[in-house]
Amino acid sequence: MNEKKCLAILDSYREHGGNIISLLQEIQESFGYIPEDVVFWFSKRLNIPASNFFGVATFYAQFYLKPRGKNIITACCGTACHVKGSAPIINKIREELKLPQGETTTKDGKYTVESVACVGACSIAPVFIGNKKVFGKMSMEKAAEMLKEIDKGKGK
Ligand code: FES
């Protein structure tokens, strides 16, 4: 744990009078996710039960309790995308990236593959998002191209 970072966040929290959400946002901004030991550190300093932090962090999808990869691949798993065959494509991508069962981030921290509910673009299902770029009407071939594109780009 980086105590210097925590102290800087604590100073800002005290100075600007924040709340749990703003504190979690600052922690995530600084660490890239919400590390458990950091939550306990703040819990002790601020005398706020750690369960309050975890309650908020797990309620909002914007917070991550595990480190995320440098490259983020998001697969829509809403009904339309599922019907149009998103599942085998996700499996293929996971296989390509050698992602162990039950894990969302590769061991080298390069990729995170996550699923979300309908992203609101059902007319171009199945929809995938690779580093914020939308790939509609996804196919196995397009998925391979997306991975190549991501691999060539930033975050390598
Ligand atoms: S179900 Fe995937 S965009 Fe709607």
Radius of gyration (CA) equals 18 Å
Count of distinct structural domains: 2
Strand content: 5-15%
Largest pleated sheet: 4 strands, mixed
CATH T-level fold name of the largest domain: Glutaredoxin
Identify the CATH architecture of the largest domain: 3-Layer(aba) Sandwich
For the secondary structure, the number of strands is: 4
Bound molecules: FE2/S2 (inorganic) cluster
Poorly predicted ranges: none
Amino-to-carboxy terminus distance: 25 Å
| Residue-averaged pLDDT | 93
Helix count from the secondary structure assignment: 7
Form type: elongated
Provide the structure class: alpha+beta
CATH uppermost class of the largest domain: Alpha Beta
Strand order of the largest sheet: 2-1-3-4
| Proportion of residues in helical segments | 40-55%
CATH-wise, what's the superfamily of the largest domain?
Glutaredoxin
Mind sketching the topology for me?
Layout: H1 3-16, H2 20-31, H3 36-46, H4 50-59, E1 71-76, H5 79-83, H6 86-96, E2 111-116, E3 128-130, E4 133-135, H7 140-152
Residues 76, 78-81, 118-122, 125, 127 line the site of FE2/S2 (inorganic) cluster.
Task: Write a structural description.
This protein has seven helices and four strands; from the N terminus they run ααααβααβββα. By secondary structure, it is α+β, with helices and mostly antiparallel strands. The longest helix is centred in the first third of the chain and has 14 residues, at 3-16. 22% of the residues are buried. Bound molecules: FE2/S2 (inorganic) cluster. The site of FE2/S2 (inorganic) cluster has 12 residues, from helix 5.
